[in-house]
Amino acid sequence: MDFEVYCDESGLEALTRKDAHLFTGIGGIWIPSQYRTALKEGIGAIKDKYSIKGELKWQKFSPAYYDLYKEIIDFFFASDFIRFRVVLIEAAKVDHIKFNNEDAELGFYKFYYQLLHHWIFDFNEYNIFLDLKVNRNKGRLQELLKVLDNANLTSGIKQVQGLPSEQSLGIQLADVLTGLVVAKFNREITSTAKLALIHYVEENYLNKQIAATPKWEEKLNVFCINLKGGW
Question: Which of 128, 125, 83, 127 lies closest to 109, judged by CA?
Answer without folding.
Answer: 128
